[in-house]
Specification:
Length: 266
């Protein structure tokens, strides 16, 4: 039984990497484009809020984490960029295969477990998110001159989990939308509000109870709070709950994604 389970797991991993490799062959020729695609919005937010509004806020009071408001929002910018590209890149990739190139049907005929299909597409989304987050991390290091804060193990673990959550969500959306306009609706009503409500620009602990409950329903909140603590705070103040929350969400999305692949008819 143990040997059978080990072989099944090995097969699942091998099939996932096969699906991922197909996306990687297309992705590797566009690495600079992917890395830069999610950098525009964070740079605008950094200049407008971190340098503009932040200079005024710093004269009134220091933020709860970090030495300035700019430092306070930088981990949130990393979380934001990884969310946008992991979700958007995965969604548009699957939509393109389903609606335009029409090679998605061929993949559904492969003798591959649906979970492996989901994991392969999710891995490609994680790589997209990490490439873009790496660009924002470089900007953050230039501003703070502190490399370790943004590449320590806890920071990177949360970043990977965040990419997994939103890449998994992107897979599910990509499998269900009927047109590119529908992707825009999901982006406008899900990703854009989460960009501002996911604790990227504020400390969620200061909110009223009702608003706090809403904010903590968003997975991006756990990423932002965790990244902020991993970058600036000691281990005894780290919100360890953020890791299992993101992991559970990623697993739940993977199960749902595998179910969607098993029932997909294109």
């Amino acid at each position: 039984m143990k040997i059978f389970r080990a072989r099944t797991l090995q097969t699942l991993l091998a099939d996932s990497l096969t699906i991922f490799w197909g996306d990687w062959l297309d992705l590797r020729v566009r690495i600079p484009q992917v890395a830069a695609s999610g950098l525009v919005s964070p740079l605008i937010y950094i200049m407008a809020f971190g340098l503009g509004l932040g200079s005024s806020l710093d004269q009134v009071a220091l933020p709860p984490v970090g030495e300035s408001y700019l430092e306070f929002i930088l981990p949130g910018m990393v979380a934001l960029s990884s969310m946008v590209i992991s979700f958007g890149g995965t969604t548009f990739s699957i939509c393109g295969e389903r609606l335009f190139t029409k090679n998605f049907e061929e993949m559904l005929l492969f003798p591959i477990h649906p979970l492996a299909m989901h994991l392969g597409k999710m891995l490609a989304g994680i790589v997209r998110g990490l490439l873009t987050a790496g660009s924002v991390i470089l900007v953050a290091v230039l501003f703070t001159r502190d490399l370790w804060s943004f590449i320590n193990p806890l920071f990177l673990l949360l970043l990977v989990l965040n990419c997994a959550v939103f890449a998994g969500l992107g897979v599910i959306v990509g499998l269900n939308v009927k047109s590119l306009e529908s992707v825009g609706l999901f982006n406008n009503f899900l990703i854009v509000p989460m960009s501002f409500l996911g604790a990227t620009f504020f400390d969620p602990t200061t909110l009223p109870t009702v608003l706090k409950g809403i904010v903590y329903l968003l997975p991006l909140t756990y990423t932002t709070v965790g990244l902020r603590a991993a970058a600036y705070q000691p281990l005894d103040q780290f919100p360890w709950y953020s890791i299992p929350v993101l992991l559970v969400v990623a697993i739940a999305l993977s199960i749902n994604g595998a179910y969607q692949f098993a029932r997909q008819q294109d």
